[in-house]
Amino acid sequence: MSSWTRATVIRVQRAAHGVLDIELVADKASPLPEAAAGAHLDVRLPNGLIRQYSIHRYNAAVNSYSIGVGLSEPSRGGSAFIHERLQAGDVVELGAARNNFPIKPGASTYLFVAGGIGITPILSMVRWCDANNKPWRLLYCVRSRARAAYIEHLPRSGIVTLHVDDEQAGHPNLHDFIRDAGADDQLYCCGPAPLMDAVRATAEHYLPAQHVHFELFSVAHLCAKPEGEEASFIIELARSGRELTVPGTSSVLDVLEQAGVMVPFSCREGLCRTCECSVLDGEVDHRDYVLGDAERDANNVMLVCVSRAKSKKLTLDL
Ligand code: FES
Question: Which fold is adopted by the domain 5-94?
Answer without folding.
Answer: Elongation Factor Tu (Ef-tu); domain 3 (2.40.30)
